[in-house]
Specification:
Shape: rod-shaped
Distance between the termini: 64 Å
Radius of gyration: 37 Å
Structural class: alpha+beta
Strand order of the largest sheet: 1-8-9-12
Keywords: Membrane, Transmembrane, Transmembrane helix
Number of strands: 12
Order of helices and strands: HHHEHEHHEEEEHHEEHEHEEEH
InterPro entries: Tad_N
Largest sheet: 4 strands, antiparallel
Strand content: 15-25%
Protein name: Putative Flp pilus-assembly TadG-like N-terminal domain-containing protein
Number of helices: 11
Amino acid sequence: MKHQSGQSTLLMLVMSLILMLTIVFIFNTSQLLSERQQAKMLADQSAYATATRQARLLNLNAYINRTQIANQLAIAQGVSTASWSKYAAQTSTNISRATSWFPPVSAVFSNIGTGLNYFADSLGIYIEGYGIEVKALEVAQDSLNLVSNATILNSPQEFGSLAKANSSDYDIRLIVSASKFPAQIIKKYTAQERQRMAEVVLSSADPFITNRSKNDIFPKLVLAPGGWNEYRIHKAGGTELVQLDEWKGVDTLAIHHYYKTIKRFKIRKKHDEIPIGWGSALGSQLGRDKASKSGSYGGASSTNPKSRGYAERNTPQWDVRNYGGAITGAGIPKFYELKDLNNKENIFPLVVSVRKSRNKLATTNRNSNLKMGKDFTVLDNYDTLERGTLSNGDMQAITQAEVYFQRPWELEVSGNQINHEHGSLFSPYWKTRLSDDMNAAQRALVNTESALVN
């Protein structure tokens, strides 16, 4: 029995060693799972926050562009109203002269003409106010997009530090090779590229701006049938955007006398235009008229050509043709829009990598390599690539967020028809989502860049 003493002690030592190793293994496993979960959550939060900031940038550009469109329509409306007022004032003045034999009526039309002229002159302040706003928004949009790249690039670190108090243990960065930055997505449209906004503005203009014409506003007066002697009154006018830099309106009213004569045994058709009213208004940022003899203006140039010529000399005081100056902001401004308008997908990824050095891991052996089944590796986006030689034993999590365009369902569907709209910076429907849909090649590229910068 003496030779068997101490065997239980040896057994206890072996069992204690096994128990201690088991406890260490459980501790390491739980700590590593916690580390990986924290890294993944931090990557998700940083990626989503960064994508949200980029979506807000795109939406803010869209709101600015929409405001610029509204401002241009307001300027066009002001020019149109001023042109119509000058035409109506001239018409009233001419009627006043024609009825001078009856002073009460003549005085009424004279006063109407005076009031309309004053109203047309006062519209200059209204137009200039909108023009100043256009210029201010143009400067603001420049400033916004000038710093956008740096803002997006620094977003992961900024949001990472807000998300976790111990985020200094993590290296959080945006993977440039797999991300789309504002400078890659949008650009400034200048010169003739502004035609894109011009098309939107003109398609949104109401009929009062584009065409104020009406033929035969009174029944025609037939003195001799068969076209031998008849009179018609035609109203023609409209406002046009001239070479993207000025809004010009022309309004005319004229009596047209159609008659026939016989000369050398041939019947010849004749036509005379008798101007009744005319007026024009021009808002230009260039300080000069670029369309003195061009433009249709709702058919005024072809329907009432003589009256249209007179209109060039009947303008408001603020008009450049009446010793006025340039109106800042009148005309399509410079603006920002997507670079590639042919890309109908409009999905812009932003990939964030979160890495924690192995010597900062809260495990006993500083080991980040945890063998897990495929189901778990899919769930936390931690596949064999991240456990390979590129990781150098560090803990790493990668998350991809996407900025995409999607209108609300009630706008997308009209009746039984799909009214689909592709993404642009004229509609503020840019959204954000997390998406780990990266193939092996993309993930290898991400891991390579992440390893190189660390």
